[in-house]
Design a protein that fits this description.
The protein is 24% helix and 32% strand. By secondary structure, it is α+β, with helices and mostly antiparallel strands. The protein has one domain: Alpha-Beta Complex (tt1808, chain A), CATH 3.90.1570. The longest helix is centred in the first third of the chain and has 21 residues.
Length: 187
């Protein structure tokens, strides 16, 4: 006879919707409910700068940039709120303005915080790869750098690390170019 195991029920998106509104941000990673701490001001400044860059690019290219909090429901047990996501013009029509997003973005961006850095570089990076998000950007507001990771097969390969006056370029968004330092006006 096999030994008995304590099986914890998996948390799903329907469970998330049933939670009372308490002002917290939640994600679901593999059926585990995760509380996401409120970000610091430095983090939010970087998110705003990056969202501006991507929104301007979206207006020129027909794409769509969205900031958190906005659920990206990959499936019932994997729901995340990346700091910024971008959908290219040829896929932006799949995003409803009035319903939850169940489409993987073309670019997912996480701005590191002390409480989220390990998850952003580990579990979430693997999740984005599993759901075939073509590019994953990691922005470090303390080290003042941005990393671009491109999906190759089922894993990411870092294609660029940029700081200061370096020009950030995305293979996926070919007409996008900006100075890395633009994201860090406090530096």
């Amino acid at each position: 006879m096999a030994p008995m195991r304590d099986v914890q029920p998996r948390f799903g998106y329907a469970d998330l919707l049933a939670l009372p509104e308490d002002g917290r941000r939640y994600e679901i990673h593999g059926g585990e409910l995760v509380v996401v701490a409120a970000p610091l001001v430095r983090h939010q400044i970087v998110v705003l700068e990056l969202a501006t860059v991507l929104a301007d690019y979206g207006r020129r290219s027909g794409g769509l940039a969205v900031t958190a909090p906005c659920d990206i429901v990959f499936d019932e047990h994997d729901v995340v709120q990346p700091d910024v996501v971008f959908f290219r013009a040829e896929r932006s029509h799949r995003v409803s303005l009035d319903a939850v997003t169940r489409v993987a973005p073309d670019v997912a961006v996480e701005v590191l915080s002390p409480s989220t850095a390990a998850v952003d570089r580990g579990r979430k990076m693997r999740m984005f790869a599993r759901y075939a998000v073509p590019e994953y950007w990691i922005v470090d507001p303390v080290r003042l750098e941005i990393e671009i990771h491109a999906l190759e097969g089922r894993t990411y390969r870092r294609t660029q690390t940029a700081t200061g006056g370096d020009t950030v370029r995305s293979a996926l968004l070919p007409d996008l170019a900006f100075r890395a330092g633009r994201l860090f006006p406090f530096a």
